Amino acid sequence: MNDTVRATFHGFEQIPLREYAERAYLDYSMYVVLDRALPFIGDGLKPVQRRIVYAMSELGLAATAKPKKSARTVGDVIGKYHPHGDSACYEALVLMAQPFSYRYPLIDGQGNFGSSDDPKSFAAMRYTESKLTPIAEVLLGELGQGTVDWTPNFDGTLQEPSFLPARLPHLLLNGTTGIAVGMATDVPPHNLGEIVSACVRLLEDPDASVRDLCEHVRGPDYPTRAEIITAADDLLALYETGNGSIRARATWTREHGNIVIDALPYQVSPSKVIEQIAAQMRAKKLPWLEDIRDESDHANPVRVVLVPRSNRVDAEQLMGHLFATTDLEKSYRANLNVIGLDGRPQVKNLKQLLAEWLTFRGDTVTRRLQHRLDKVERRLHLLEGLLVAFLNLDEVIRIIRSEDEPKPVLMQRFGLSEEQADYILDTKLRQLARLEEMKIRGEQDALDSERDRLIATLGSKAKLRKLIKDELLADAKKFGDARMSPLVAREAAQALDETELVPSEPVTVVLSEKGWVRAAKGHDVDAAGLSYREGDRLLAAVKGRSTQQVAFLDSKGRSYSTLAHSLPGARGNGEPLTGRFSPAPGASFQALATGDGDSRFVLASSHGYGFVTRFENLVGRQKAGKAIKTLTPGAKLLQPAPVTSVADDRIVAVTSAGHLLAFPLSELPELDKGKGNKIIDIPKAKLGTERVVAIAVVPPGGSLAVHSGARTMTLSFKDLEQYLGKRATRGGLLPRGWQKVDGLAVA
Q1: How far apart are CA 259 and CA 262, in angstroms?
Q2: Which of 25, 189, 464, 740 is at 20 to 30 A from 510, Cα to Cα?
Q3: How does pLDDT run across 76-91, given as a tens digit for each residue?
Q4: Phi–psi pair at 731, nearest 5 degrees
């Protein structure tokens, strides 16, 4: 039955789905690559751009003509040549008319064609008018001179050019971007004069290297006054490989103490830059700036004014930070991937691009000259027959009047060709009678001379090269202009460290028992007298600077850090540290410290083990913190004790049983992390009931305050000698009545 059913179906092919999908996707990808996304090296245009320019020329919209509605152009393009969406077609038309998008715009737009602040803010096509610019003549001037191949349009009713006979390498002049299937292109725009100069160099010296050509093509030339700061060696590498990147930077000046940005990188809008800077100001990351204003107008398309807080602000340093953190400095990808003369996409270096375009131009000029030569020879042939008719005018008239078929008789009688006979018969008698022999012979002489020149040029490669060179230089003189994007050797900008952007002010960081933190301005703060949430109270407070890091240590021995200026002020209750960090379940914050990276602290636990460590070891950017202190089971982390001098300071530890021990700090090891060594001895039998209450580091000349309830006993550096002992010993017993110690403080 299956054989019978299969035999009844005819007119289609049965293939596996995998094979069909592979073939269909390949066809689609080739269409996108060749007919949509990548430009042709000859005229540097994508199909939609080529069809727009050609349709406008067919509508008579030359630079000297009156513009017509853009909707008329778009209608012709999508109705005759490009059966795609009208909005996409109109957007391509607008892009070619925007002087901030195209280095050499091909279309002269009248009406709202967008702005550099918002390129897509253009009016609808029914409101705008457009025509071609004078430089479009470079693409269209030789179109009707036999220079291009013609192909049927999508429905076969019209012919359209496969490419335009560009007299200049338009691909490099305006550049292009496109994303195809599996490949992309990013060709930056260049200066017309520089490109023509490189072409002339290559015509005169075909062995010139890319380095030689880069003596003429110094780098891209965007339609903006922003600086190109890419190093010359990097630009050379880009042109040698066809891949690389270009970095552009905004330009600025000082004006009455303000910073005025007057040029932005290519395709960067002033509003976006202002938004980026304002976001930093709102986040208090730009304390140097007081205000930002957008004063851009028609006369000054880019004018962004930055108002510093004072004249002491380093403008160079501030702008360097903004270059690194905003679009005031931007990098552009370059990928010179184009469709070559062989119809295949390929990434080409500068020499390959120019050499292949010159080959295209040579073929175009050859076709133009041959087309003209054919026309000249045809005209000479017709003039020769016309001269015979003039010299034998009476007989010609007699033959025409008397013969039923005068054409073969004329051909036989005077030895004329069919074309000559047709031309004579098509010429009006009145016009034939007016012709004079001298006029005919004069035109023949002029055409003979032109034919000789054409044949000589076509037969000589040197003369053909000279003609191409002369035409290139003539177009460069007519359409060339000065470079817009200055090339300036500068280092890439570096963002300032967050601490450099914040004024250094004294602060007191306060931590509560329930893990709420805040930073009060100044060092004369009564931390215990601040308001706390119900059921909460002061745990610890440290004095530091707003530019310093603050480290918080939890009950698992992990350290977390943040900048002091980022903490909330002391007007409220602060914020919970669990909102900033992610401690382990069940962990609580028990201590804090602040200082510079080289500052040293003693980290100790309530079981009497500790070590000296640098503050930088407590600093970590991980939200989950970093392990710093190994704690024995049941031990608590004590408030870190700041060190003045490892060699001269004494460390003091006191237990809940009133035992106090002092010994040289140099006996304690310096570690990056770990458990440390025993500081004071607590008998194993008493570990459950006795613990280390506090530690302190006393410098020479300093004194130690021992707090017991509401009372305080002060011990000088000399008084501590009675409690001196070896590390890890029991220490001396404090006097009766002072053995219940609440804490230690160094004065």
Answers
A1: 10
A2: 740
A3: 999 999 988 999 999 9
A4: 80, 180
Which class for 484: exposed (0-12), middle (13-18), buried (19 or more C-beta within 10 A)?
middle
Map tokens 């009675």 to a residue.
722
Q: Where does 290-405 have alpha helices with state H?
A: 315-325, 350-391, 393-402
| Strand segments (E) across 605-668 | 609-614, 626-627, 641-643, 650-655, 659-664
692 and 604 Cβ atoms separated by less than 8 Å: yes
Give the separation between CA 451 and CA 467, rounded to whole angstroms.
Answer: 16
Which residues are within 8 A (CB) of 559 and not within 5 positions of it... i.e. 6 or more apart?
Answer: 551, 552, 553, 617, 618, 619, 620, 625, 626, 627, 628, 629
Give residue for tokens 């009006």: 428
Sign of CA dihedral 51, 54, 60, 62: positive
CA Rg, the chain, in Å? 43
Three-state SS at 5: helix
DSSP-derived secondary structure for 94-106: HHTT-TTT-SS-S
Q: For residue 246, give both structure tokens.
A: 């270009």
Which run of H or of E encompasses 510?
A: strand 506-512
Q: Give the residue, 1 or 631, on which the prediction is more confident.
A: 631
What Å distances lie between residue 651 and 352, 604, 712, 724, CA to CA?
75, 11, 19, 10
Q: What is the reported pLDDT for 5?
A: 46
Percent of the chain beyond pLDDT 70?
Answer: 95
The pLDDT tens digits for 502-520 are 777 899 999 999 999 999 9
Domain limits, CATH 3.30.1360.40, in the chain? 251-327
pLDDT tens column, 212-252:
999 999 999 999 999 999 999 999 999 999 999 999 999 99
Set 25, 28, 31, 127: catalytic member: 127
Three-state secondary-structure class, residue 694: strand
CATH number corresponding to 251-327: 3.30.1360.40
The share of the chain scoring above pLDDT 90, in percent, equals 76
Provide the phi-psi class of 554: left if phi over 0, else alpha when psi is between -120 and 50, else beta: beta
Q: What is the pLDDT of residue 324?
A: 92
Q: Given 3.90.199.10, 2.60.120.560, 3.40.50.620, 3.40.50.150, which CATH number is that of 45-165?
A: 3.90.199.10
Q: What is the mean pLDDT of the chain?
A: 91
Nearest CA to 321 out of 562, 565, 501, 548 is that of 501
Q: What integer is the mean pLDDT of 290-306? A: 90
Instruction: Encode pLDDT of 3-56 as tens digits.
Output: 544 555 556 778 888 877 877 767 666 656 566 678 999 999 999 999 999 999
Numbered ranges of CATH 3.90.199.10 in the chain? 45-165
pTM: 0.74
SS (H, E, C) 570-597: CCCCCEEHHHCCCCCCCCCEEEEEEECC
Work out the average pLDDT over 308-334: 90
At residue 17, the pLDDT reads 84
